[in-house]
Amino acid sequence: MGTLGSRLQASQDPEECRKRKRTAHCDCETEEEDALMDTPRRKKLKSTSKYIYQTLFLNGENSDIRICALGQEWNLHKVYLCQSGYFSSMFSGSWKESNMLVIPLEIPDQNIDTEALQVVFGSLYRDDVLIKPSRVVSILAAACMLQLDGLIQQCGETMKENVSAKTVCNYYSSASIYGLDSVMKKCLEWLLNNLMTHQNVDLMKELAVDVMEQLIQSSDLFVMQVEMDVYTALKKWMFLQLNASWAGPIKQLLADADTWLCKRRDEAFLKTDDGIPFIPVFRHVRLQYIINDLASARILERDNILPPDWLTSVYKSQWFAMLRTEHDNDNGPQDANKEEFETSSMRCGRKLTKDGDYCWRWTGFNFGFDLLVTYTNRFIVFKRNTLSQPCGGAVSLQPRRHLAYRLRLASFDNNGKLVCSRSTGYQLLTLEKDQEYVVMNLDSRLLSFPLYVCCNFQYTSPQPDRRPDAPELESSARSVS
Question: Which pTM value belongs to this model?
Fold first, then answer.
């Protein structure tokens, strides 16, 4: 059988085999051609959006309405203009403009110019709009006037992405005018982070009193060193507000401000006509954390910026706080009182230039609580020092002391934009003598230097406000015969 099969195969016509092969090959080619015919061909054509923008907007073809504003004309189309709430109301109501072919547009906002109108009108004819940070305020003004919500939102996002020392004041005031709360919040956050960490003369000249007041009263202000540095920054800012033409290096600013104020010490500067506008800002300086240092208290007295009664009340308050610590065994806050913490906590900070080992304390009398802060091996540690380290002042030997604190870390890029940040949040802590406590363990992958450390502390228990008509407590003192 095997031999017969072989003979039959051998007896087949070779030509017929070749035909079958060609037929099979042709069938494959036909299938490939059919597949190619069914495959969509891609050819880059001019997009519909670009065609509409070029033909209808730039060339003004088939225009059915002309808009005139600021000495310029635009040949536009009602069907596209109706995307604007402003024009939609105009054309759909009983306004005389609804039947006019030429509409003169009144522009009451000085922020709007022809370039902004060109961008805003053009946005009605295209899918995307590129907004330059330097032009965003004018475009926002025009978008608000014409009630273009999508473009307004895009302007807001552009502003939030480009906040810097050069733009923050302009963006904040513009956001206030046009109702962009999220932009205002972003600008305030930037200022809270950068006012003290990256001091800038031009920025200080631009900062308005109402904005500075919000910054100084906030517990989120990123203070470098101690509260005295907040006062010093305000002194420089006030000098620049009253001497806008001053031009010099920032290192010379404090000396020139002191020289200028030295000639005006006959009375407290904030009581003079020049000083009265700055009272709301200086009211929020936490003076109790300045007079706890002798050198700083002497500078306050010398400058004579603050009314004497301000300092008298703070001296009195601090004296009673010290007596409570000594005689009433006030060991510090034990119950959560975040509201009190936000308004009256001590603000201080430190810049860590590069990775390494650091140990420091902030100057000033803190009711015998000598707190050492250590940064080493990516750990931040608090230590209540009593006997193990030398201390220049009195140290409390009470077995336990309580404090409320919040520690924040941050690093910034060249424009002051936050690169990374960490926070402990509001915390209560009890420390025994010479006890250490690990406050934060950092991930080295997230660290970026220079690193800014900012702390808020409260060492004494908050006291309720004393009403003038509150009855006096009976004295616990006894006479000794």
Answer: 0.85
